[in-house]
Structures are given as C-alpha cells and as structure tokens.
Design brief:
It is a single chain. This protein has about 120 residues and is mainly β. Helices cover about 0% and strands about 50% of the residues. The chain has no helices and eleven strands. Strands 2, 4, 5, 6, 9, 10 and 11 form a seven-stranded mixed beta sheet that branches. Strands 1-3-8-7 form a four-stranded antiparallel beta sheet, with no helix packed on it. The mean pLDDT is about 95.
Length: about 120
C-alpha cells in the first residue's frame, strides 16, 4: 500500500510560480510511474502530467505544456510539479497518483494523495 502526501499549494498571482511536492511511502517508489491530476470546482478531474520510473519520460496535458514540469527524486521518494506562468484557470485541487509500471500514457492509477489547493488570482 502506497501513501502519498502532497504539499506546496497556496495562493499565487497570475504569472507566478509554485512547486508542488508529493512524498511517497509504503512501496518501492522507483517501481511506480507518477502522475499529477487536478480538479477545479464543478469540473471533472483531469490529467496534468506524468513521469516514468526513472524520470526519463514525461507527458503533459496540452493546457500545461511548456509551463509545468514534472520531476522526481527516487532517493527522496518524492515527485515534484513545477508550475510557472500560472493562470487563473489553473486554480484547482492538485492530486498526485502512483501506478505500478512505467508508461506515462496509462491513466489508470492505483494510489492517490489527498490533494493540495492551488489558487491563482487574476
């Protein structure tokens, strides 16, 4: 059983940056692909991006491509989401997720964190 805890959310002005972290425990972190998702009020949860076991492969939603970067530190059992050039439409609860396996395009994740709120003011 993998436990995931996100941190780093908050309130930021449009154009600003935030870095989210997701600390994992309870499993062999390097065997899991990691993903970030978000859910805005009244909307369905959507894929933001994912990273493979080693960090060698990443995938991003078109809406964040070029602004967000996912990275991971397997020694620290942590995955990061660097968010730059934030827009009000990025406001959402952000969740990290883990999936046993390596691909970045499989969106069926096994474990989820509790989420962290990101609010971007205009």
């Amino acid at each position: 059983q993998v436990q995931l805890v996100e941190s780093g959310g908050g309130l930021v002005q449009a154009g600003g940056s935030l870095r989210l972290s997701c600390a994992a425990s309870g499993g062999t972190f390097s065997r899991y692909a990691m993903g970030w998702f978000r859910q805005a009020p009244g909307k369905e949860r959507e894929f933001v991006g994912a990273i493979s076991w080693s960090g060698g492969a990443t995938a991003y939603a078109d809406s964040v491509k070029g602004r967000f970067t996912i990275s991971r530190d397997n020694a620290k059992n942590t995955v990061y989401l660097q968010m730059n050039s934030l827009k009000p439409e990025d406001t959402a609860v952000y969740y990290c997720a883990a999936r046993l396996g390596n691909g970045v395009y499989n969106l069926n994740y096994d474990y989820w964190g509790q989420g962290t709120q990101v609010t971007v003011s205009s």
